[in-house]
Each structure stands twice: as C-alpha cells, then as structure tokens.
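Following the same procedure, the fold was encoded as tokens, giving this record:
***
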Amino acid sequence: MKETIWKYTLQHTSVQHIAMPIGAKILSLQMQGNDACVWALVNPERSKTPVCFEIFGTGHEILPELPNEKRIFIGTYQDSGFVFHVFTKT
C-alpha cells in the first residue's frame, strides 16, 4: 500500500505515547478546533510502535534527557492563551 497522511490528536499531558506505523514522518503540528493535532506521513501496512511525545509550556522546566535519548522539536502551538512546545524522543 502507498503512504497516506494520518492525523493524531495530542492529549494535554506532559508525556504521552501514541502508536504510529514504523517509519512515520511527522509533517505538521497545529490546532484543529480545540485540539492540538499532529499529521504524519505513514505506511498503514507497517506494524505500529509507540512514539513518545513531550509537551512543555513556555517558561516550564525541560526534563533532562537520558544519555541514550534524543529530543526532536516538532512544533509550537497556542491554546487558551498559553504556548506549548512539542518534542518527540528517540
């Protein structure tokens, strides 16, 4: 099957795991209505794996990375007057 774009809704929590097909490529992070959403290019036939998302508010302490982790910035969104910054961890 060819690749397609799927949408994933983020919860308003600091750390969460979302099952995504292996090799998913995140394209965008935006608000849609009242939800922060991530769009990703995926191959739906691939097995799913949990992807870790971290959300930090502006001015909030950033959790330290473990030695074998790397944080990748996905984007910033605004909700109810607050600004949040989203990362994935590898």
Notes: DSSP finds no helices and seven strands in the chain.
